[in-house]
Write a structure and sequence with these properties.
Elements: H1 8-40, H2 45-60, H3 63-82, H4 90-116, H5 119-127, H6 132-162, H7 174-185, H8 188-217
Helix pairs in contact: 1-2, 1-4, 1-7, 2-4, 3-4, 4-6, 5-6, 6-8, 7-8
């Protein structure tokens, strides 16, 4: 700990902010992704076009540009609508930007998982007298959830690491705190190495949790 020269608390604060960023963006991005998936599968051309456009833009534009667009574009848009200057919190901007990017991938994960459920199973459930809602809840969603869990988990790990890019707009997450400590101590290698080890520990714990969840999702007969 002496190598960190008293910046342990600062790095810990940055770590907590990183976890909050990732958690909030994950929740918001999952909601956005689910809504976008519904749009793409709605059967209404206009809604399908909106969903596809969102996915194409969010996946095709670098995440850093999305951060800049939200951080600089949102205040400008709100100022134009309200007629007065508007400031946006860096944490809120980071959450929205990360969620916009994460949501596009979640939409494709959910859509692919739903479409992976064989059609004959749906038809068999309907022949057994199950309603559309019952078929969705007892046949489609359980299988889709199992299929979606691995890619969703992988994308969650990517999201955790992507929180580092919001340091560019001043959000006090782990990379920002590490940069401040590196500048103050003039030991960038030590501080960035400490940040790298923290990221590695966080992703390792998340990987273990996801592995446990994947094992639990497998039906008992298949274990």
């Amino acid at each position: 700990m002496e190598l960190l020269q008293g910046y342990e608390a600062q790095l810990l604060q940055g770590t907590l902010t990183t976890l909050k960023l990732a958690a909030c963006a994950l929740v918001l991005g999952t909601v956005l992704g689910s809504a976008c998936c519904w749009l793409q599968l709605s059967g209404v051309r206009v809604l399908e076009a909106v969903g596809r456009t969102y996915v194409a833009v969010a996946r095709g534009v670098p995440d850093l540009l999305i951060v800049f667009a939200v951080f600089f574009g949102a205040p400008l848009t709100l100022a134009t609508l309200t007629g007065r200057p508007v400031e946006i919190d860096t944490f809120a901007a980071g959450v929205v930007a990360l969620a916009l990017s994460f949501g596009a991938y979640v939409a494709e994960i959910i859509r692919g998982s739903l479409l992976s459920v064989p059609g004959p199973q749906r038809e068999a459930a309907r022949m057994l007298g199950l309603s559309r809602l019952q078929t969705l809840g007892t046949v489609v969603l359980p299988q889709a959830a199992r299929a979606a869990l691995p890619p969703f988990g992988n994308q969650s790990i990517v999201l955790l690491k992507q929180t580092s890019i919001v340091s560019i707009v001043g959000c006090d997450e782990l990379m920002r705190k590490a940069a401040e400590a590196a500048g103050a101590t003039r030991q960038p290698f030590t501080m960035y190495l400490a940040a790298a080890l923290i990221y590695l520990a966080l992703t390792a714990m998340l990987t273990l949790c996801l592995g446990w969840a994947e094992r639990r999702s497998v039906p008992t007969a298949q274990r």
